[in-house]
Amino acid sequence: MMKQSALLFTAALAWSGCVEVAGPQGPPGNANVRTVTIAFAPSDATRNGTVVSRGYNLRELVPSVVDRGAVFVYFRDQRTWTALPYTLGIENLDVVAVDYTFTIGYAYDDALLEIFIEASSATDLVWDEIVALLPAEYLMKVVIIDGFSAAQDAGIDPADYEAIEAFYSLDMR
C-alpha cells in the first residue's frame, strides 16, 4: 500500500508540473511567404512564334504552393511595381488604331517559373519594335505564398503590390 501511495504521490506531483505556460507573443511574421528577385532580359529569352520566354528554377515553388498557394510577379517600371500579366497596345501614329499588342506574363509549376512576352503578331518587324520599346532588363519580384486563404479572407487584391506587401509585412524595397 505504501508503494501505491508513493506512486500516486509521484504521479500527482509530475502531473501538477505539466502546466502549459504561454510565452510572450512573437513578432509578426510571414513564414509562409517568400520573395525572390529576378532579372528578366528579353534578349536572353527564347523565341517560338509569337512568344519569347525564359524559365527560372525556383526551389521555393514547392507542390503545396502550386496546389494550394499563390504566386504573384511584379515588374518595376517608372518607379512603381506593376502586376503581371501586363498588356500594352502599340499603334501607328498615322492611323488611329492599335497595330498590335504584347503581353508580359508568367506561368509556374513545381520548381519552375516562366516569364514570357506574347505578341499579337509573329513578324520580325513587330518583334524588332517590341525589343526597341522594352528596357534591356526588367527587375521582377516574385511573391510566393504557401497557403493564401488569410489574404483571400481579408479581401486583399493580388494585383495590388502594396496591399500584398503590407498584408504580409514584406520589406522588398
What this model shows, in words?
- With 173 residues, the protein is α+β, with helices and mostly antiparallel strands.
- It has one domain.
- The chain has helices at 2-16, 63-68, 124-133, 149-153, 161-167; strands at residues 33-40, 46-48, 51-57, 70-77, 80-83, 86-91, 98-109, 112-119, 138-145.
- Strands 2-3-8-7-6 form a 5-stranded antiparallel beta sheet. It has a 4-stranded antiparallel beta sheet with strand order 1-9-4-5.
- Strand 6 and strand 7 (98-109) form a beta hairpin.
pLDDT averaged residue by residue: 80
Largest sheet: 5 strands, antiparallel
- Anisotropy-based shape: elongated
| Fraction of residues in helix | 10-25%
Order of helices and strands: HEEEHEEEEEHEHH
> What class, by secondary structure content?
alpha+beta
H/I helix tally:
5
- Please mark out the parts with pLDDT under 50 across 5 or more consecutive residues, or reply none: 1-21
What is the strand arrangement across the widest sheet? Answer: 2-3-8-7-6
How far is the first residue's CA from the last residue's CA? 71 Å
β-strand amount: 35-45%
Radius of gyration: 26 Å
Total beta strands: 9
What is the number of domains?
1
